[in-house]
Amino acid sequence: MVFRGYFNNPAETEKVFRNDWFKTGDLAKIDAEGYLYIIGRVKSIIVTAGGKNIYPEYVERFLKKCGSVSEACVIGIPGKSGAEKPVAVISLKSEGDFDEIEIKKELKSLLEGIAEYQRPKEFIFVEKLPLTSSLKVKRQEVAALIETRDP
After folding, report:
1. What is the DSSP letter of 16?
2. What is the chain's mean pLDDT, rounded?
3. In angstroms, rounded to a whole number, what is the distance separating the alpha carbons of residues 19 and 130?
4. Which CATH class is domain 45-147?
5. Which long-range contacts does 135-138 make (Cβ < 8 Å, 24+ apart)?
6. In terms of DSSP bridges, do strands 21-22 and 17-18 run parallel, antiparallel, or are they unpaired?
7. How far apart are the first and last CA of the chain?
8. Which of 61, 66, 103, 120 is buried deepest, with most CB atoms within 10 A?
9. What are phi and psi for residue 101, nearest 5 degrees?
10. Which helix (H) or strand (E) holds 57?
């Protein structure tokens, strides 16, 4: 047994167990040689207007190839139709002045390797992204931060 449930939280425990199986929410693929790769989380999927799925962690790997990027988080911003548009929220390695136009050019160049529908429609630069104690971006906090910002 992986674990019996969340401490003092039976509602959440019930959500993740099906027929005594713990559903982690991880998405994975197996390549031709039988290697297993974790590619994302079910809760993170962005669904576009065309009904296509975007796996943010996949897009973030391309963004992090930019030498100026410290952390990146791709989230879906809900539109009027209920579909989401992908938005990249990025913190940079160096503080102070930066050439936003040049960095966006580099990011767009790196993103040419993925399908058009997966590419973020907007880049938002922040000083720092909220991180967990294990240094993973707190995706829900980033989404809340973006929802409350001035356009």
Report:
1. H
2. 89
3. 35
4. alpha beta
5. 137/71, 137/72, 137/73
6. antiparallel
7. 47
8. 120
9. -65, -45
10. helix 56-63
The answer to whether 66 and 110 are in contact (CB under 8 A) is yes
Tokens representing 10 are 């039976």
CATH architecture entry for 1-42: Roll (2.30)
Please check whether residue 56 is in contact with residue 40, taking contact to mean a CB–CB distance below 8 angstroms. Answer: yes
* 139: exposed, middle or buried (Cβ count in 10 Å: 0-12, 13-18, 19+): buried
Buried b (16+ CB within 10 A) or exposed e, 1-15: eeeeeeeeeeeeeee
Nearest to 49 by CA among 17, 86, 21: 86
For position 150, what pLDDT does the model report? 61
Tokens of 21: 């199986």
Residue with tokens 């995706």, as numbered in its chain = 139
Q: Which residue has the tokens 């693929």?
A: 29
Record the pTM: 0.79
Tokens standing for residue 59: 């897009």
Summarised one tens digit per residue, pLDDT across range 48-105 is 988 899 999 999 999 999 989 999 999 999 887 888 999 999 999 876 677 889 999 9
